[in-house]
Amino acid sequence: GAQAVMHSDYSISQFRFLEHLLLVHGRWTFQRISLLILHSFFRNVGWTLANFFLVFDNAYSGRQFWDDTFAGQWTSFFTAVATYAVCITDKDFVYQNTL
């Protein structure tokens, strides 16, 4: 048992803590990861649709809607910071009301 604990990512001291770990923290982790995926899809769809509708306006010339500086900062700063801030702090219920 002791060697398995030393090689694991985390360990719990008593078996009764496993229910709380799986049901509460597992639910929060699932909610946060699914919200992160939805935000990632949303920001990529928004970027693509803006460029798609610009094609009709500029007569299919291939011109981009944003300059390269803004395009480089779009994923790394403008959308990723907001997405991670929401995903880290989001909880669908209060810790004291669990189980």
TrEMBL record:
Keywords: Magnesium, Metal-binding
Membrane-topology descriptor: Multi-pass membrane protein
Gene Ontology annotations of biological process type: phospholipid translocation
GO (cellular component) term, any one: plasma membrane
Gene Ontology molecular function: ATPase-coupled intramembrane lipid transporter activity; metal ion binding
InterPro entries named among the record's database cross-references: P_typ_ATPase_c
Keyword Magnesium applies: yes
Annotated P-type ATPase C-terminal domain residues: 5-93
Cellular location(s): Membrane
Entry protein name: P-type ATPase C-terminal domain-containing protein
